[in-house]
Amino acid sequence: MSYSMNTYTRIPVAFTRGEGVWVWDESGKKYLDALAGIAVNTLGHAHPKLTRAIAAQSARLIHASNLYRIAEQERLAEKLAVISGTDAVFFCNSGCEANEAAIKLARLHGHSRGVDSPAIVVMDKAFHGRTLATLSATGNPKVQAGFEPLVPGFVRVPFNDIEAVRRVAAEDKSVVAVLVEPIQGEGGINLSTMQYLRDLRALCDRQGWFLMVDEVQCGLGRTGKWFVYQHARIEPDVVLLAKGLASGVPIGACLARGAAAAVFKPGTHGSTFGGNPLACAAGLATLEAIEQEGLMGNAARVGAVLLDGLRDALAGRPGVVEVRGHGLMIGVELARPCGELVAQALEAGLLINVTMDNVIRLLPPLVMTEAEARQVLSILVPLVRAFLEKAPSAVAARA
Ligand code: PLP
């Protein structure tokens, strides 16, 4: 009998401890973690720098309230502004809250320009969260079903299709912003082209729209740079972060640049917990470790080992649609639903995930070594090959 509300289809295993990219369950079985709690455990498990920072901060001051100045928050905001090229940071506690902040910011911007019903361009297959506004921005009917009426003010276009956004610009004068994940995570590890991001930037400049990038899953070093938009050499107006920012301590952030940084005024937005000393100390320790330990370069190198290994072993095989990714954000799209691979990998001591029913997703901690990446391949590749050779089960074939 469980008293937890029935919102998850849980895998019946509970982890009790972790170290680096390894975790152990209640029975003492050891697993290689290629998922990092869905892109959260940036520094892996029990990273000494992080545990020390959390312990020290909790012994000093856990929470203070945004009624007062918070020194750790000021330091983390400055660090984030410097690495992202933005000017101001609002802290919250999760990815959906970061997106909520951006939606509110865009609407305020629109009203200040005299737009009565400001709208935001969003993408097919996008995922921005599960609050009412963010599930309305999300491009997945399964996430929205049953929660209608959806929040209005979103105009949906196909991903990576700049002409579709240009058509919206020509026809819809209510639009004030574009919200895009530079790599869609929940939607199946779909990479935007760098040209698409640059074209979006140019279009937003022409229209006076804010370009808002949701890097909740893909950002913070995972692709070899702090942020994916930096590969395209563009500067967004708004950047959204959460997940890996404090390596497991809940935190979210809405970063803004230029005019976007001046939209919120005292009283227009807020959060009780957002940016508290504990979360910010964990965030600072995470960013410092990424820099000091060269984890962005590591993500690029180890990601290439994984991606090349998966491509060599699987690309072009019947049943494999595509092997794609950037750094330590990797998807293997199969031609049929493959959720059963999660349990098979677990049995074999490997943590992975399947998204959109048929995309195997890897989001390892940034501390994974090349040798550990080869261990991931040595477990995963035979499982996928066996899955491909097997006739689809009756249930999967019907689905
Ligand atoms: N944005 C993106 C790109 C995400 O991947 C997620 C979560 O998966 C969210 C927003 C929502 O984050 P949270 O679950 O912390 O609310």
Rounded mean pLDDT is: 97
Low-confidence stretches: none
Query: How do the helices and strands follow one another from N- to C-terminus?
Result: EEEHHHEHEHHEHEEEHEEEHHEEHEEEHH
Distance between the termini: 31 Å
Portion in strands: 15-25%
Bound molecules: pyridoxal-5'-phosphate
Task: Determine the number of helices (DSSP H or I, runs of at least 4 residues).
Answer: 13
The amount of helix comes to 25-40%
Number of beta-strand segments: 17
The gross shape turns out to be globular
Describe the structure in your own words.
This protein has 399 residues and is α/β, with parallel strands linked by helices. It contains 13 helices and 17 strands. The chain has helices spanning 36-39, 48-60, 71-84, 95-112, 132-137, 141-144, 162-171, 194-207, 277-292, 295-314, 340-347, 370-389, 394-398, and strands spanning 15-19, 22-25, 30-33, 88-92, 119-123, 154-157, 175-180, 183-184, 190-191, 210-214, 238-241, 252-256, 320-326, 329-334, 350-351, 353-355, 359-362. The strands form four sheets. The chain has a seven-stranded mixed β-sheet with strand order 4-12-11-10-7-5-6, with helices on both faces. The chain has a four-stranded mixed β-sheet with strand order 1-2-3-15. The chain has a four-stranded antiparallel β-sheet with strand order 13-14-17-16, with helices on one face. A hairpin with a 2-residue loop joins strand 1 (15-19) and strand 2. Helix 2 runs antiparallel to helix 9, helix 3 (71-84) packs parallel to helix 9 (277-292) and helix 10 (295-314) runs parallel beside helix 12 (370-389). It binds pyridoxal-5'-phosphate. Pyridoxal-5'-phosphate binds next to helix 4.
